[in-house]
Amino acid sequence: MTHRDLTILVIDENAIRASIIEEGLREAGHGKVTVIHEVHGVARVIETLRPDVIVIDIENPNRDMMEHLFQLTRTVGRPIAMFVDRSDTASIEAAVEAGVSAYIVDGLKKERVKPILDMAVSRFKAFSRLQRELADAKSALEERKLVERAKGILMKMRGLSEEEAFALLRQTAMNEKKKISEIAQSVVTAAGLLIR
Amino acid sequence: MNILTNKSEFRGEKLSAGGALPAPGSIRHEGSRTVRAGFIPLVDAAVLIAAAEFGFAQREGITLELVKDVSWANVRDRLAFRQFDVAHMLSPMPVAAMLGLGSNPSPTIAPFSLGRGGNAITLSTRLYGLMQQEGGLGAGEDALKNARALAAVVRSAQAAGKPPLTLGVTYPFSSHNYEFRYWLAAGGIDPDRDVKLVVVPPQMTSDALAAGAIDGFCVGAPWNMVASERGVGRIVATKQDIWPSAPEKVIGMRPEWAETNRETVSRLIVALDRAARWSDEPANRIRLAEVLAEERHVAAPADIIRRVLAGEFAIDPEGNRRVVENYLVFHAGFANFPRPSQALWTYSQMVRWGQASLSRQGIEAALSAYRPDLYREALGKDAVPAGADGSRLEGATDGDRFMDGHVFDPDRIDDYIKSFTVGAKGRVQNPADDI
């Protein structure tokens, strides 16, 4: 349980993602976790906190500021970017794809750091999956609304039942090799042009 | 398809610790010529962008896949971790990498320089006002007078017990850092004691100045002009004023990649050479500006980029203009040749400011970062300047002077560093010393 001693600093402008990571670290038994959302004043935070591991999102242009800080601040050891084990290309790719970068104080055993980074990577991934799912759910809802409207138009204009209207949309979509929502969109657009 | 082949190809390679790559077991064709290139949205990435966008790479059988990034640290890491094959880099970055400086030093070489110029120093309009009042500065003074006027302001602020000025550069191992320090020191300001240097990402410089978070910055184009057109800053020196020949960005790559992809490297250099010649032609600069302005590239207004390329400066909010000759040079005057003496000049600045110490091994490491041999191999001896290895006295000819008249002799680095009154003088910034 030596890993409990590690001091971890998470810098992420995205507050939700940062809290997801923080939670993960706490669940893994890390008590000394600090989260900041903006890089302003980070120099002082680092000097007082003396973190062993710094996790920062890769899209943060302030990474260059961190580099400068490490060059100047004598209280910080000698942090190394990303991964201790450079031959671990799979982990590196996973991290970059997920958008995680990290600094680790030199000399820290990689067995102690790897679980932290793996956790950060999986939480970053989970976060973007969540966002994707949210976006998917939104567009699914939009599509369903569109189909409902198209069905209504067909029922009214062609005197069809709800099932018949849906069957017609589906059949047309199959014939034209398009998505049902695309056909529904055409129906709605056409109706907008023809009626009124 | 090409991308896939390429990717699996570099996944298959094994990195050996610090040494050369073992030769592949079987004869392998260089195969796919998709080259993935990282860049930072700056006008000085022009040659790389032009090579990709105007058919120069294609003509050499290379598909240049440009990947925009947000920080130099990312560029360095993604090159080291094989996410990029080559990258648009600050010229001191390969030198720092070879010297083992920074938080992820991984062997990096520069066989091609992307040109000269583009940097400038901008101070807040408030600070410039103080320089006029307290430094007795007239209108349109030269860079050295501006620096001395700033020194007067700094001294009176110190006497009044005011906090030091905060000035922004873009990266610890950057031409901006060394140029800003050079200019400050030439005016009599110690950049480590009299002011506070911080790092600000280029695209944030003008906002940071407007918000009062910094009092000035040194950055590449187009950000100085953006600040002066917004009325928040005053340009007080350009690279042309500090040292016209100073190398700016380079193409960096891993030596092991260059070794296993020799033909691709050669073709890439040819493509970049053609793109650089094309970019230097004034007739092509309108098209160049349009492409650079695009969202996927620099993402800045096309008219500003056009003026930046022409060296037309709005130096202050009142609309005073100044045309800087050769503000951005992409090819002329051997601008693409990686000159060994310039790698050594960069090293001399690292030593001057305490980032490194001077040693024979250091000199060799700095020299190994620049690869004029690969440049010569691709373009032939006619493309290379005369002289033993293209090294020369820097700042020794008219039109190429340093602002304070010093001359850099690559064979006498120690004397050169000692000839400056302002410098770190042995305050080596090595955190290991403290432990």
Features:
A: 196 residues; alpha/beta; 5-stranded mixed sheet; 7 helices; 61% helix; B: 435 residues; 14% strand; disordered C terminus
Short description:
Chain A is an alpha/beta fold and 196 residues long.
Write the layout of secondary structure elements.
The complex is a heterodimer of chains A (196) and B (435).
Chain A: E1 8-11, H1 15-27, E2 33-36, H2 42-49, E3 53-57, H3 63-72, E4 79-81, H4 89-98, E5 100-105, H5 110-158, H6 162-176, H7 180-194
Parallel strand pairs in A: 1-2, 1-3
Antiparallel strand pairs in A: 3-5, 4-5
Helix pairs in contact in A: 1-5, 4-5, 5-6, 5-7, 6-7
Chain B: H1 2-12, E1 34-39, H2 46-53, H3 56-59, E2 63-68, H4 72-80, E3 86-90, H5 92-98, E4 109-113, E5 116-117, E6 120-124, H6 125-134, H7 143-159, E7 166-169, H8 175-186, E8 196-199, H9 205-210, E9 216-219, H10 223-230, E10 233-238, H11 239-242, E11 249-253, H12 255-260, H13 262-280, H14 285-293, H15 302-310, E12 312-314, E13 321-323, E14 328-329, H16 340-352, H17 360-369, H18 372-379, H19 413-418
Parallel strand pairs in B: 1-2, 1-3, 7-8, 7-9
Antiparallel strand pairs in B: 3-11, 4-11, 5-14, 6-9, 6-10, 12-13
